[in-house]
Amino acid sequence: MNFILALLSIATASAAYISEVKDMPEHTIKDDFIKPQPHEYINADDIPAAFTWADIDGISYLTKSLNQVRLDEKAGAKQQLVLCLTSLSLRSSPRSLFAAHSPVLWFLLGSRCSLRPWRPHQDGPRSLRLR
Amino acid sequence: MARGPSASVDINLSIQYILNNAGSMAGSCYGGSATGTYEYIKKSGNVPYDSCQPYIACSSDSSIGFCGSVDTTPSAINTCRTCSTFGVDCSAIDEYPNATISEYGTVTGADNMKSEIFARGPIACGVNAEVRLDEEQSDSNIPPINITKNLPLLAAFLSPSSTTRAGSSPTTSSPTRWSTT
């Protein structure tokens, strides 16, 4: 199975990179969950080779995509790329597709990664919707 | 984004709310973390929809563009506001559509990440791409990379629990699109 991600677009005018991977001082809890994680109950062999929330029987369950290019920032930190993984197989894409530059705000991912909730009574069992 | 016939309305969460209020836990325009953002949302109770606080790409540590002249510090009006008309100050509203988080955490490894995406939806990833940036400086035709092998990677998942309205009155019509399972 492919789990290849094309290099994300980077449009930088400066070589002075500043890491934007930061744990802020008040951030102390990185894991806060009690339910079993999917990898505990899904056999890796059962994961489909291709799957994307952007196209499940022609329906996208993703919210809007954001392009975070700060045009007025001539120099500065472009070191961290952020992305929302919504597919199991991502191949070469237009460089602009994943352009996600400074201001790199991780929360963008939370927003980018929003998903329309699954409604079993309307949408049916998820497994049946996979091709 | 194009939506299918059975897809419900988008739920877009307020990035600016995080920038205004969560700088010391989630981060700012100059960096942060996904789990820090999730921790803040869970501890603070909710995150408003972005109709409360549209994204202006400013945090209190930024003076780029107009950022130096806007107030992006924690406050009620910087959580959810309404602006009725020209010439009248905007005001805070204390009951607003929002989303909550029931669980969040980190996930590592390609198979584990795939399982998470497949079973519960998209995950957030941050990549420290300094190495790739250095390479791109000298080569504009960099081949695709195996993200799980070539780059330091942090991935995080979250489980939305519900969308409600904050505030004291539970009587307003509140969409409950995310149900706890």
Q: What overall form of chain B do the CA principal axes indicate?
A: globular
Largest sheet of chain A: none
pLDDT average of chain B, as an integer?
75
Number of domains of chain A: 1
Q: Low-confidence parts of chain A lasting 5 or more residues at pLDDT below 50?
A: 1-15, 69-82, 89-131
Q: CATH superfamily membership of chain B, which one?
A: Cysteine proteinases
The count of domains of chain B is 1
Share of residues in strands of chain A: under 5%
Largest interface comes to: A-B, 81 and 90 residues
Regarding quaternary structure, what we see is heterodimer
Q: Report the radius of gyration of chain B as a whole number of Å.
A: 19 Å
Can you give a write-up of this model?
The complex is a heterodimer of chains A (131) and B (181). With 131 residues, chain A is largely without helices or strands. In chain A, 11% of the residues lie in helices and 5% in strands. Chain A has helices at residues 38-41, 107-112, 120-123; one strand spanning 80-85. The radius of gyration of chain A is 18 Å and the shape is extended. The model of chain A is unreliable at 1-15, 69-82 and 89-131 (pLDDT under 50). Chain B has a single domain, classed as Cathepsin B, Chain A (Alpha-Beta Complex), CATH 3.90.70.10. Helices cover 23% and strands 22% of the residues of chain B. Chain B has helices spanning 15-21, 34-44, 110-120, 130-138, 147-150, and strands spanning 27-28, 31-32, 47-48, 81-82, 91-92, 97-106, 123-128, 153-165. At the A-B interface, β1 and α2 of A face α1, β1, β2, α2 and β6 of B. β1 of chain A pairs antiparallel with β7 of chain B.
Record keyword descriptors for this entry.
heterodimer, A: 131 residues, little secondary structure, 11% helix, 5% strand, extended, disordered N terminus, B: 181 residues, alpha+beta, Cathepsin B, Chain A, four-stranded antiparallel sheet, two-stranded antiparallel sheet, 5 helices, 22% strand, disordered C terminus
